[in-house]
Amino acid sequence: MCVLRATNPMQIRPTRTGGKTFASASAYWKAEPGSADLAGRIVRYVVLAHDPAVPAVAADYWMHSERFYRAVVDPLEAVIGHDLAYRRLVAQPTDTFAERRLEERVVALLDENPELAGKLAREADAADDNVYINYFRGRLYEPEAGPAGLDRLVELASGLRSRPSGTGDEILVVVPLSDRDGAGRIRNLTACLLALRDQTFPADRYRVTVVEFDEKPRWKHVVEPLADHYVHIKGEGPFNKSWTLNVGVRETVGAARTLCLLDADILVDREFLERNHARFTDQRADAHLPHTEMLSLDAPSSDWLIERRCGENTPEAPLAGARGLLLRDVPGACLWTRPEIFHRIGGFDERYKGWGGEDEDMLYRISAAGDVTQYDDVFLHLAHRRPPMRDAEGKPLNAHVEVGSWTGESGFGDTSGVASGDE
């Protein structure tokens, strides 16, 4: 058990349903049990130790995980570091052909050297249980997928029927948006909204709000046909996700009994709303994270899974065609809560600007105020250009904000501007 996970400093109640878990899909990655399976696991750590996308996806997770990567890779490198297949994958860690070739080479090596196989198996077991960034490649993954661009998704949206009338008094979904240069967020949001339109939960009992943070309503023409509410707030400078979400709740909550605060880059399955709304039948439940792990997809598998889920209307995006980095215990991406507790704690802390920190802060405060559960759904995060996570001095962008100090007493979710904070 990972030391950090075991401490559970926020006292979030974990739940392992055995249902839509990432572990249930791991057969897509694994080969037959035995040396081939172990070789695949070992080569996965070669990718993780050398791909620059790994520290970029979450610097703090990387710092915790790197030593476990090296514990697997270093003994292998000492024996096979000269091998052409190894050197090729180290030089090009996204080359899945090189990855497969190295797996074949490692299978032979393990069969020849049982002592090394035993050592690497022990190190891989320890790494599997402790790393916060893992690696996944489905058995049907192809690096050359046809593009699923914004034009394609707008075309799909044009064929949808109008949303039914109704109060939407069960669920309000709020999705924040900021995409000043069309770098991928608006494409991802459109896929997210199409997936939210394709739900088993009755369409007249939920509503979707998109709040755009921008100098102008840049993507209103794309969003309005797919959302029940579009709100534009005049946002200048770094993206303020906290203010954006707070505005969405304050402006459009209506009579909703539950809130879903969802990132624009998440591709949900068809039962997403029904499953998570049902979790509030537990009267203790004030809030929950639907996911334990999140798969941050690469660009080809983002295109492929969007086409399957949105173009072909599959019930869920098939993991067999996915490739990406698997992050454990991600505090962000999605939070479900009751409106009462959201208002009681003053929503998200609007002092957070740019990337990072606001989700952890919210989870800290909401778990102190009520009962929070973590479930083990699979979350799929669509690829986009990574924003800066640190300032020019290498410090986290919001290191100056005291975690848990926000109360919202000076206001929150005001469309005229961010609240000054609680002094």
TrEMBL record:
KW Nuclease (keyword) present: no
Entry keyword set: Glycosyltransferase, Transferase
Annotated Pfam families: Glyco_transf_7C (PF02709), Glycos_transf_2 (PF00535)
Lineage: Bacteria, Bacillati, Actinomycetota, Actinomycetes, Pseudonocardiales
Family, as annotated: Belongs to the glycosyltransferase 2 family.
Keyword Ribosomal protein (UniProt): no
GO terms for biological process, alphabetical: carbohydrate metabolic process
Residues annotated as domain Glycosyltransferase 2-like: 187-295
Pathway where it operates: Cell wall biogenesis; cell wall polysaccharide biosynthesis
Name of this chain's protein: Galactosyltransferase C-terminal domain-containing protein
Record-level Gene Ontology MF annotations: glycosyltransferase activity
Domain named Galactosyltransferase C-terminal: residues: 337-370
InterPro entries in UniProt: Galactosyl_T, Galactosyl_T_C, Glyco_trans_2-like, Nucleotide-diphossugar_trans
Stretch list, region Disordered: 404-423
